[in-house]
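Input record (one chain):
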Amino acid sequence: MHAEAAEACEAVERFLAANRDAITRIGASLRESPPTVAITCARGSSDHAATYGKYLIETLTGVVTSSAAPSVSTMYAAAPRSKSEPSRRLCIAISQSGKSPDLLSAVSAQREAGARVIALVNEEGSPLEDLADDLLLLKAGPEKSVAATKSYIVSLAGLAALVAAWADDAALQTAVESLPGQLRKAFTLDWSPAMQPLLDASNLFVIGRGYSLGIAQEAALKLKETCGLHAECFSAAEVKHGHRRRVFPGVGLCRERRGGSRRARDRCPVRRARSPRFNRRSDTGSRATSRARGACGNRTHPDDPELLSLRSAALCRARFRPGPPALPEQGDPDEMKASFSNGHIAIGYDATKAASFTLSQGKVTAIDTDDRSTGSFDLEGGWLLPGFIDTQVNGGGGVLFNDEVSVEAIAAIGAAHARFGTTAFLPTLISDSPEKIAAALDAGDAAIRAGVPGVIGVHIEGPFINEVKRGIHEADRIRTIDPTMIELLSRPREGKVVLTVAPEMVSPADIAALVGAGVIVCAGHSNASYDEALVALDAGLSGFTHLFNAMSPLTHRAPGLVGAALDAQDAYCGLIVDNAHLHRATVRIAIRAKGADRIMLVTDAMPGVGAAEPDFMLQGKHIKVQDGVCTYMDGTLAGSNLDMATAFRNTVAITGLTPVETTQMSSMSAAAFLGLSESHGRIAPGQQADWVWLDADLQPRGTWIGGVRQGDATPSIAAAAE
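The corresponding structure, as predicted from the sequence alone:
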């Protein structure tokens, strides 16, 4: 099967070369004489491909499409009615062999009813050919494995090519022509990380919707046929209706990403995420959360955050709802116990009043929510939440990363922000020289190796940005990216590397090269058009730095970078919720448009956070901090004086979300964005013991990183152990 899957790219090439003229001719004739209804005839994998075809036809041409049930003609000898308009009925038959009796019977019945028959078939000389008015040979070659992979992929490509020609969709036609190269690239990637969560799974739900539903159907079938797993496909729109009740430890949830042409996605009546749902007349809003997704780009319910997602045919992550964790081996010297009570402890999306944790090597190995141990840590009616993750921290504790790119500086910045609940952060370097960028990346590596609490990588914000939107960044530090910088940024690192660029200033090829090397590329300080942003997203860009600020705005005829950010379903957006960078209504609009699972709270913090003197110097400019706002003398905002606890508190007040719900944006979303959901972002077995204690007014009272309370010489949980 592996060998045959490897042939898919060549098979698609053969199909396109052999059928290009025929597809053009068929497409033109369908436009000239459009059918009023389309019927697909197929079985098994071919029927899954037909599901994909149905969505393509209905979204790109508007023609109602239905799947014929072969048993209607074979078991019941029933025939379609009416032959009055033979040119207005279209039958698309898809088959590997072209010999299945029930398929032939169904196609014959449609033909007798006057349908025009288009056949996509792999084996030449099959009986299906005799029934076809138009024949498209798949050219996939012999299928020797049980799981017919290459013919299925070619069927998808054939349907896409056919509908692209029918709808005269230039974007989809271009995408189809580039498909062999994309398949070749995808096959060479290391997909092993996606397999690890499957090793212990015995039951799987595979979830898709719209264009991806047929892919999800085939994925479930492949899991059954090749792995012997119980796997069932469900529509993301229906999975909540009973099916989720069957989710328990050992049941994995997989999501297949939507696909199709951008034209089709743009045309669809997308109803974006409404999580949370707000009362437009009130700043408090409703605390109800709705995470439904529309037909073009849904994501599964955020109550199931562990999902398999496919991104740009290049990235694959698989995470599943964990089963009961294994306890540490008896006698583990690193094992500790910690108990908390008299508060609200966020366990997943729920809260419990008390809990006991078993820890080993800084990670949670077990949780007992019924524990009432004596000597437990008293939360005093407050909240124990997942530690905050901040992907944009320029400074803190009187230290600016641009001024001092060292392990000591990173440690000082981390310590300052830990006071406010930040347990993981990216020290951030704004536009500077290549030498400074290299030093910053090396300092991040050294800090991680030295065990500096909380540091998980480095964020390089600029200098590959647009001078028009540079903000406080120095103009003489802005530069174009070159191979030397790409090589530097692409080197293996101890932690994550996030790079903010202006999409219009960096080529798609360079973005793809960086993403391929593991760099997380974001858009910011950009005057990019909507279309330029989409090109960058297709190349692998996955985030937007401080949404709305320093980027081309959303207008009714030019959506700009803001429009692209809100429209890109899978991309993450950082929000600076300090009541200065964003209006309160803008915060709500952004969360409503993107969904909380694609919003990250960030501080964009400067040295004043946690420092006695908030004012500071930035690249020769005196920055004044007044009422928590950092500005240069010309009024330009210069980062923020925001800490994550304040950002969290502001977000709760603005949206009306509960503290537990808000952890999606303060912790979980950033972890997912960075690819760290397996270890960060939640209070759960297998996660880092990274916690923040907020009092009843959501003021910070304590922070633990790896089970160690920051500011203490010994683990704070020692007193609660026993």
